[in-house]
Amino acid sequence: MQTALRTSLPETELASRANFAPAARVAREERPLHVSGLPLSIRGLQKSFGDNEVLRGIDLHIPAGQFVAIVGKSGCGKSTLLRLIAGLEKIDAGSISFGDAAIQPEDIRVMFQEPRLLPWARVLSNVEVGLGRDRSSSDAHARAEKALTEVGLTDKRDQWPSVLSGGQKQRVALARALVSRPRVLAFDEPLGALDALTRISMQRLLERVWRDQGFTAILVTHDVAEAVALADRVLVIDEGRIAHDVMVNTARPRERGSAELASLEGSILSHLLSADDRT
Amino acid sequence: MSLIDSVSLPRNFRLPRVDGLVQWIVPLAIVAIWQVASVTGFVPVRVLPAPSDVALAGWKLLLSGELIRNIWVSFWRASIGFLIGGSIGFAFGLANGLSQLSAKLTDTTLQMVRNVPHLALIPLVILWFGIDESAKLFLVALGVFFPIYLNTLHGIRTVDPQLIEMGRIYGMSDSELFRRVIFPGALPSIFVGIRFALGIMWLTLIVAETIAASSGLGYMAMQAREFMLIDVVVLSILIYALLGKLADSASRVLERLTLSWHPAFQKR
């Protein structure tokens, strides 16, 4: 199945592999420290809303612990794919499976573009919400505090969400998603509403927690630069199908604005735009 | 720099205790002007007695125990009626906000009843209950029901659906979702209902007591009118004003305690 998908690899990806073979080898060693993620297999996935066919047969395998970015024009079905993976919508046809392990609801978490914090709960209680069924356990406080420390907001634990900045709210939302130690974390344009500088520091934070915890990360974004900066692999979705599957083998930590990332970004963008010209 | 500091400091400087008294300046000034107007004969005593006379009448009634008894009777009627009508309104608001079926069954009926002015029912209520306690309680409960029902319903229907989706994703059960998301989200609107209801509560009670009662503040005022005791009439009206203010302050304190998360209630 992987090989079948690989046939659609663009030349740039092959070129980058050839040119940056040493870097690619370093990248292999920069895998997450311990992989706790789940592999993800999607077969023949279809979804329509009324007459509108949003996904027209997605076949995809994501190995455990991989960081995958999904890009595409708005309305291409990328958010729907993410919502299906997270179990927020019903599947019309096809299947999504997470390896052989029995999964718990706490194993899969979603982070949205909006922080969706409870305005009437203090920051720490908002993080505790993420524990799911463990909310009432005795170590709930301690676990929530640990998650807050991971996103660097320990000193805000007793604040109301309304006094936090946009980036801080999103960090609380990240802590809430992380507190149950999920094995798959789905991000639906989580940085879309942030200013440029906050975005970059949030991207670094996402990359760091992914490397520390080793979950399988699926990031839906409209920002190709963000996708190539963070992901191991970029999927381009067009008209409900995977149009391109590009590996990003650049070593981490990645240098923002490097020529390598820029050329990759350029080639993915040209795919997106050429799809635009056809229609 | 130091010059600017020394100039701007007194402007921002406020005595916290004085702050709370500012709101009473206007009412006290009105009383003072009124006293002067009465003493100088500008306002005839038969039209409006001086505040000092009103206070004296109040003191006499206080000593005889009549004032306390009547205030207590009115207060008791108001609170019991408010509790009955408020809890039924709250229950219907919850049911219709949470269940489509319940809303379909009852909302139309309630909207029809709502448009009947409840004070128009006084003749019917007197025929049903006589001038008994239950007549007053019924009218107060009916008046209080609608603002609480409508605002509870509105509050629950307008809770952010994104938060509800978030609660579901994080595995909240129905009761947990209600406790952690829906009820706190509806609370600001419920408080608006409570404050409206408190106003209607006094209005209804006074009208009911004036028309048909044998005790209470409204009854005291009507009795005084029969004997041309205008100072007692004015006293009753002033007590209504104070009780209304008291109820409003109580709901504000409650609001501040429960809505401290809300940006509008945070101390600046």
From TrEMBL, chain A:
Example of a GO MF term: ATP hydrolysis activity
Regions that span the bilayer: none
UniProt domain ABC transporter: residue ranges: 40-264
Keywords: ATP-binding, Cell inner membrane, Cell membrane, Membrane, Nucleotide-binding, Translocase, Transport
Listed GO biological process terms: alkanesulfonate transmembrane transport
UniProt xrefs under InterPro entries: AAA+_ATPase, ABC_transporter-like_ATP-bd, ABC_transporter-like_CS, ABC_transporter_ATP-bind, P-loop_NTPase
Described purpose of this protein according to its UniProt entry: Involved in beta-(1-->2)glucan export. Transmembrane domains (TMD) form a pore in the inner membrane and the ATP-binding domain (NBD) is responsible for energy generation.
Family: Belongs to the ABC transporter superfamily.
Annotated protein name in UniProt: ATP-binding cassette domain-containing protein
Organism of derivation: Bradyrhizobium rifense
UniProtKB/TrEMBL annotation, chain B:
Membrane topology: Multi-pass membrane protein
InterPro entries associated with the record: MetI-like, MetI-like_sf
Alphabetized Gene3D superfamilies for the sequence: MetI-like
Protein name: Aliphatic sulfonate ABC transporter permease SsuC
Keywords: Cell membrane, Membrane, Transmembrane, Transmembrane helix, Transport
Cellular component terms (Gene Ontology): plasma membrane
Pfam families attached to this UniProt entry: BPD_transp_1
Family label: Belongs to the binding-protein-dependent transport system permease family.
